[in-house]
Amino acid sequence: QQPPSTIISTKQLEILIEAIGPNTSIKQCSLQHSQITNELASTLALALVDNTTMTTLSLRGNNLTNVAIKNFYSVLSSGENRTLRVLDISDNPGIETDVSEAFETFMEQREVKRMLTLKAEKAKRIARGMPLLNEMLEEEREDDWRIGSGVNGGRRRSVNGSVGCCGVTVVCHT
């Protein structure tokens, strides 16, 4: 059973999206069933250019089409954002299956590249006799997050500290 659609005003969404760019606390954000349009999703994609902490974003069950996914792909493939690992675009009837599958593959490849880069950096530090960075150790502990776009479902680790408002759940780690 699908949750009821929650209507949040466009202005509220714009304020939230504007705050995501420079935010350094939010790691996960769920905007499921929030009537997100291509225009708002494109603004959100651009906000991710400046965001350096968000790892998970859910846009499940909105009004997105292929256009929004192409905009996310453009931003994420540019290399500007290196932190987003999961972008759930499932249950958006306007997204064609081949586009969602291609995007999921892209997200999986992006995660593999990130992991290889982390492991190469770790090997370099070990070879130089340097201590490992805490960030690298923390990244490896979080490897049980499901990679990809969430198109085919998957396991998720539950996180404490969720804050919900107007159908929007923002999960913060401080």
Query: Order of strands in the sheet with the most strands?
Result: 3-2-1-5-4
Please count the helical segments.
5
Globally, the shape reads: globular
Q: How many strands, which pairing sense, and closed or not: the largest β-sheet?
A: 5 strands, mixed
| Alpha-carbon Rg, integer | 16 Å
Written as H for each helix and E for each strand, in order along the chain, the element string is: HEHEHEHHEE
Give the helix level as a range of percent: 40-55%
Q: Which consecutive residue ranges, at least 5 long each, have pLDDT under 50?
A: 143-174
The proportion of strand residues reads 5-15%
Mean pLDDT over the full residue set: 79
Distance between the termini: 33 Å
Number of strand elements: 5
Structure classification: alpha/beta
What key attributes describe this structure?
174 residues; alpha/beta; 5 strands; 43% helix; disordered C terminus
Give a short synopsis of this structure.
The chain contains five helices and five strands, in the order αβαβαβααββ. It has helices spanning 10-20, 38-50, 66-77, 97-127, 134-141, and strands at residues 26-30, 56-58, 86-88, 162-165, 168-172.
